[in-house]
């Protein structure tokens, strides 16, 4: 839906992933959507060079998150949140509702 606006499908999926989870690794985005890691990395670097994202090394990997110093990030995130709200529930459940923290020991499923 957004690929014409942001340039391509990889950029669209990367932005929506980061909007949903707040941060992410290139490999994580690649694995979620079945996109080659090199394409995801290229888009993340391009978005970082544009000032939309910032990254930091965490061990041997690079973690990307939104650049809070860019005043245009907040309106972009509001727009992306609206896009996520309009996304069909089957797509939301498949790509954007992964459990990201461990379950409490002894808690039933």
Can you describe what's shown?
By secondary structure, the chain is of the alpha+beta class. The protein has a single domain (3-95), classed as Winged helix-like DNA-binding domain superfamily/Winged helix DNA-binding domain (Arc Repressor Mutant, subunit A), CATH 1.10.10.10. It contains 6 helices and 3 strands, in the order ααβααββαα. It has a 3-stranded antiparallel sheet. β2 (53-58) and β3 (61-66) form a beta hairpin.
Put the structure in a nutshell:
By secondary structure, this protein is of the alpha+beta class. It is 54% helix and 14% strand.
Q: What would the keywords be for this entry?
A:
single chain, 109 residues, alpha+beta, Arc Repressor Mutant, subunit A, 3-stranded antiparallel β-sheet, 3 strands
Fold blueprint:
Elements: H1 3-6, H2 9-21, E1 23-25, H3 26-33, H4 37-49, E2 53-58, E3 61-66, H5 73-86, H6 89-95
Antiparallel strand pairs: 1-3, 2-3
Low-confidence parts: none
Report how far apart the termini are. Answer: 35 Å
| Alpha-beta classification | alpha+beta
Using the coordinates shown, work out and report the CATH topology.
Arc Repressor Mutant, subunit A
Mean pLDDT: 90
User: What is the correct CATH architecture?
Assistant: Orthogonal Bundle
Instruction: Give the overall shape, derived from the CA principal axes.
Output: globular
Order of SSEs:
HHEHHEEHH
Number of DSSP-assigned strands? 3
Reading side by side through the largest sheet, how are the strands ordered?
1-3-2
Under CATH at level 1, the class stands as Mainly Alpha
Main β sheet profile: 3 strands, antiparallel
How many individual helices? Answer: 6
Helix content: 40-55%
- What is the CATH superfamily? Winged helix-like DNA-binding domain superfamily/Winged helix DNA-binding domain
For the CA atoms, what is the radius of gyration?
Answer: 14 Å
């Amino acid at each position: 839906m957004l690929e014409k606006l942001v340039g391509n499908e990889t950029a669209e999926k990367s932005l929506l992933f980061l909007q949903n989870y707040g941060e992410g690794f290139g490999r994580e985005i690649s694995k979620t959507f079945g996109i080659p890691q090199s394409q995801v990395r290229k888009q993340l670097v391009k978005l970082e060079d544009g000032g939309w994202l910032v990254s930091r090394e965490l061990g041997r990997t690079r973690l990307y998150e939104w650049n809070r110093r860019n005043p245009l990030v907040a309106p972009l995130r509001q727009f992306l949140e609206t896009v996520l709200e309009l996304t069909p529930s089957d797509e939301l459940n498949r790509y954007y509702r992964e459990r990201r923290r461990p379950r409490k020991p002894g808690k039933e499923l």
